[in-house]
Amino acid sequence: MSKFTFRVVWSIGFLMVLCMTTFAQTASLSGRITDQNGQPVLGATVQVKGLQVATASGADGNYSLSNVPVGNQVISVNAMGYGLDEQSIVINAGENSLNFSLIETSSDLDEIVVIGYGIAKKKQIAGSVASVGPKEFNKGVVSSPDQLLTGKVAGLTINRSSGDPTAGSTVQLRGPSSLTASSSPLYVIDGIVGASIDLVAPDDIVSMDIMKDASSTAIYGSRAANGVIFVTTKRGKAGKPVLAYSGYAASESISNRVNVLSADEHKQFVEEHGLTVSPVETGHNTDWQDEITRSGISHNHNLSLTGGSEGTRYNASINYFNNQGIVKRSNQERIVARLGVDQNAFDDRLKLSLNVANSLKKGSHVDYGIFNGAARFVPTSPVMLEDEQYAPYGGYFQVPGRTSYLNPVAMLNQRDENRENNTLLASLKADLTLTKGLTWSNVVSYQRNQYDKVYYMHRTDFDSKALGVGYAERDNYKNIDQIFESYLNYNLTKDVHNIEAMAGYSYQKTKNNDGLHARSTGFLSDDLGGNNLNLGTLPTGYNPYADTPYILESLLISYFGRVGYTFDDKYILSASLRRDGSSKFGSNNRWATFGSVSAAWRISEEEFMKDQELFSDLKLKAGYGTSGNQNIDPYRQILIFGPRDGQFLYNGEWVNAYGVNQNENPDLKWETTSMLNVGIDFEMWKGRFGGSIEYYQKETKDLLYEYDVPSPPYQFNRLLANGASMTNKGVEISLNAVVYRNENFSYNTSANFARNINEVGSLESNIENIGVSQRYEGGIGLEGWTGQTASIVLPGQPIGTFFVANYIGYDQATQKTKYLTPAGEVVTQDQISAPDDYMIMGHALPKFTYGWNNSFQYKSWDFNFFLRGVYGNQIFNATRADLSRLQQANVTNISKDAVEEGIFETPLIASSRFLEDGSFLRLDNATLGYTFKTDKIKYLNNARVYVSGQNLFTITNYTGVDPEVSLSGLAPGIDNRNYYPKTRSFLLGVNLTF
C-alpha cells in the first residue's frame, strides 16, 4: 500500500470513528422563501448560523433542513441580488416552520464568497476579492470558461489573440511577474486545487471568485503568486428534481481581413511600376483568404438534473459543444459530463460529497503558416494546375526554389493535425462536525489527463521533409495528479466577537509526460495518415524517438493555517501561514514559508456614522503577504545527461553521442512574490451605488532565469538560477450602480478600470559572477531579417519594451528610409548596425484597461451590452512589414497600406516605422432576451430565449487584422504574420427549467 493510499484510508477510518461517537438531539425545519412581491426565490442559501447545516431553496422557493440542533438558533438566508435576512427561532423536537421574505438590493455585502479552504461573507474579507456570477458572464461562443471573465474584473487580463477554436487564452493578474515560469493563476474548482478548467462547462458554473492580493492567496503558498480563481459549480438541492436545458446555435464569420491587393489591383500595380510577373503566376483571380476560410456554425447544449432530499442530494449534467472554425478543416468538439452526490449521515454531522467529471476535447488544428501564405501569395496565381510538373504536389500550384513561399490551400489540405484531450477528475470530500463550530474536512482527488496528437504531412506536401515520402508525428502523454488534504475549520460567535480558525495538511503527487513522441517517414500511401507509424520506412540514421521527453514526477507537501477575528462587525483581522516542501527545487531550498496579514475597518458601523444616510457601507482595508511560483518542470535542479548532436565510431559501429544537457543547481528555489494591498470598499444610498478602489505594490524576487555560463567549469553552457526581480504597482477601480429601478423597468451598470506599471529589476543571479545586463527577445523571422529582434528585457523597463531603430522618414529623392541613431546621427537602412543603433521606442503593455457593462430589464424583456478596451500600448506590426516589399510585388502580394505609403525600399530591419498604437474599444457582446410567463404551464418553471452578438465592432487606429495580439512571454505585442483571424458571431439561444 502506497503512502498516499495509507494516509487516505487512515483519515477516512478515523473520521468514521469520530462521527459515530459524536451526536446531538436534532429536529427539522422547513418553509418558503419569497421576494417582496411574493414570488419564489430559487437557489437561496439557508443556513443555521455558526454550523455547517445548510441547504438551498428550490424552484418553488421551498426549503427543508434536517438535523437542526434543538434550542435557540439563528437562521440566515442569503441569495444573490437580495439582502441578508436572519431570524431567531426556538427549535423544538419534531418539525418546525419558518418563512422568509427577501428584499431585492444591489448590495453584495452578505454575499458568500469562496476563500482558501472555506467560505466567508464578502463584508468580512480584508483582502482583494472579486466575484462574478452567471448574470455578469460574457455571452457568446465560449470555448473555455476563463473567457467568461474577459474584461469583467479590474486587473485581470484574459487575452485570446485569435479565433482558433483549439487555442486557449493567456490569463494574467496584476501584470507579468515571471521571466521563465508560467504566469497563469491557480484554479480551485469546488475545493480541488489545480483542477483543470476544461472540466467545467460554462453553464454549470455558479460563481467565480478571484483572489488578487497575496494576503488572500498566501494560504496556497508556492502556487499562488499569480492569483487564485475559485470556481463553484452547481450542486444538488433538497426538493423536487429540477431539469434544466440551455443551448444555442451560432454563426461565425471573419471580423477583419488582411488588407492586401486584389488580383486586379495587383495587376495594375505591377504594370504601373514596370515589374514583371512570371507568366505561370498570371491570368487568374484568386482571393487566397477566401480560399481558406468559411462561415462557421457552432452550437452548444447543456442538460442538467438536480434534486434529492435533505439526506441525499444529487447533480448530473452533460455538455456538448461544437465549434466549427472559420478556417476550413479547423474545429473543436467537446463533451463534459459531471456527476455529484452529497450524502448526510449520523444526524447530519457527516457530509460526504462524491464528484466525478470527465472532459473529452477533440479538435482539428491547422498550420498557422497558411495565414502568411494567404496574405503573400500572388492573387493572379492559380490554386491548382493540370500540368505534369505539379503532379508531385497533388496538382497544387507551387513555385519550386522558394521554400518559404507555399501555396496556403495546399498546406491546408495536405497537413492533418488531430488533437484529443481526455481529462478525468474524481474526488471525495468528507466534512465532519466534531462539535458546534468545529468541522474536520478531508479531501482526496485523482486527476488524469490523456493527450494524443496525430500529425501527418502528405507525400505531395511541398516541404522537402515530406515530399515524395510523407512525414508523421505522434504524441501520446498521460498526466496524473493526486491530492490529499485534511483540515479543521473552527467558528465561534459570541456577542460581538467572531473567531475563525483553520489548520491543515496537504499532500500532492504529480506525474507528467508519461508517454512518448514518435516520428516516421518513408510512407507509400497517405491513406492512414499518422495513425500507423510502422508503415513508414525510416532512412538510415533516423531516430524516431529523438525528441521523446522524460517522465516528470514531483511531490509537494504542505502545512497551513489561518486565523481571523471580527469585533462587532467593525474591526477585522486575519493572518495565514503556509509551509511548503517541493521536490522540484534544490536540496538546499526544498522548504519555504509563506505568510500574510490583513486588516479592515468598517467605518460605517461606528456610532458616529449611524445618523448619516449617505454610506450604507464604508470599509478601509490593508493587507500584506507573500506567495510563490513553482510552475517549472521537475528535475531542473539536477545534472541531466542526454543525446547530443552527432555520432561516434565504437567497435566498428556508429552510435549516438551522449553528454550533459543540463547543469545541476542545488540552490534552485521558487520565485517569491510579496504584495501590499490597500483599498476602500463602499456602498452608498442603501446599495444604489458602490464599488472599490485599491492600490497595490507587488514585488517578485528570486526570479527563475536561464543564464549563459562558461563551459568549463560548467559542463553545459546554460544554467537555470534564481536572482532576478520584477515589480508591478497599480490602481484598480470597480464601480456598480442601480441607475433606475421600479416594478417594470431597471437599469444597472458597472465599470472597472485598471492601471498597472511593470518594471524589470536586476537580472543578476544569486550565483557569483553570473548574470546579464540585458537580453534581446522577440525574434522576427521575415525573409532577409536574419537575427532581427523587436524587444528587450532591460532593468528599469517593463516587459515588452520595444527596442528598434528610430525611423524618422523617407527620402523620396534617394528612395531610402532615414533613421536617427542614439548618437543623434541621421543614417540610412544599410548604415544601421543592429542592435547597437537601436533605441527604446515603445511598450507593449497598456497604460490602462477598462470595461463597462450595462443591463436593462423591462417587464419580461432584458438587454445587456458590454464594452471593453485598452489604452496606451504599442504593437510591432511585422505582418505589415512583410507586406511592404513594393519592389518585390512581382513575386509576392503587398498591402494596400504599403501602396498608399509609397516606400519602395525593402524593409530589412526592425524599426519604429512598424510600431503602431494598439489602443482599442470593443463592443464585446450585446444580448437581447425575453422570459416567458410559465406559471400556468404545469411542468415548465422557466423559459427564456435570447439573441446575442459577439465582437460586434472595434474602434482602433491599428492597421492590422486585430489589435488584441498576444501579451504572453518576454516579447508581447508582436503581430508576426501567423495568426488565426478573430471572429464575429451571432447566436440564438434558449434556457429552459422544468
Automatic annotation (TrEMBL):
Keyword Transmembrane assigned to the entry: answer is: yes
> What are the alphabetically sorted keywords of the record?
Cell outer membrane, Membrane, Signal, TonB box, Transmembrane, Transmembrane beta strand, Transport
Q: Per the database record, which ranges form the TonB-dependent receptor-like beta-barrel domain?
A: 392-952
Cellular component terms per the entry's GO annotation: cell outer membrane
Which cell locations does it reside in?
Cell outer membrane
Q: How does it sit in the membrane?
A: Multi-pass membrane protein
Q: Which residues form the signal peptide?
A: 1-26
Tell me where in this chain the TonB-dependent receptor plug domain is found: 122-228
Q: Which family does it belong to?
A: Belongs to the TonB-dependent receptor family.
From the Swiss-Prot or TrEMBL record, give the protein name: Iron complex outermembrane recepter protein
Species whose genome carries this gene:
Sphingobacterium lactis
